[in-house]
Structure prediction request, 300 residues.
Amino acid sequence: MRYRKTIAKCARVSGIGVHNGEPSAVTFHPAPYGDGLVFYGPDPIVADWKNITNTVLYTTIENTSGHSVAMVEHLLSACYGLGLTDLHIHVEGKEAPICDGSAKQYYQTLLEAGCVASKTEETLWAVIRHPVRVNQGNRWVEFSPGKPLFSVISTPDTGVVHEYTFDPFVDSFQHDIAPARTFMRLCDVEKIKKWGYIKGGSLDVALVWDKGTPINPGGMILDNETARHKILDMMGDFSLQGAFIAGKVHALNPGHQLNYEALCALNQEPNAVSMMTWSQWQDECFQQQPVSAKQSVFGA
Prediction:
């Protein structure tokens, strides 16, 4: 993850929007190193936390002209997992396709397009300097200094507790996180429909819980699947920082609104985060290592 990456050729994912129920598609195009992740509809929308305008059930970003794209978190998570930093993303429709409710199809499509790393342009890292925590009732998200790590406790239904920890330098995003599907409780379905959402919802695009058990044929496809999906969502939402997170993220039942509030708090808290290139961060890590451990600084 040392150097900035784009893709070698165009790639496309099509399907439906889970909330508006309409056909949608995104086409990924290679981009110059340094452009960042930019969505194109009528005009550009930069993937930036300051452009977040809605976090009810999903994440929406919008530009100053009022053009927006919804459900960006799953495809952005795939970009984070692949280390992709520079893409032009052309959107057909107002909402990115839900696919199977995970990041698997996005990840596989981008992987097959080929990842091409710069030889000189380095990635940016948001280095966490001191703990920042946001709470919403008994739910919370916390950033703290340390080696990059995502750790979540999720309670998808009564009596069910899922826990999972993901190390982006050791574990496999492709196998451990990307396939984890979005989820909800069966008792909430009609209420959410009355709000005007999940018009394209089905058991093909979400893990649905009832009385402590998924009603989907075959049940969960990964152990602790809901905690893994919450990590998937966090990686997508936190990619809107415009940098990889160099620190620990711990959370209890996080959601898109809480993720957004955590990003706001991180950037508004004085000296809570430093933006550094890979080399700057590695040099700092190296200086902080005991002499006997200076070979253990993160590999590229």
In short: The radius of gyration is 19 Å. The chain has a mean pLDDT of 95. The longest helix spans residues 225-238. The chain has one domain: 3-288.
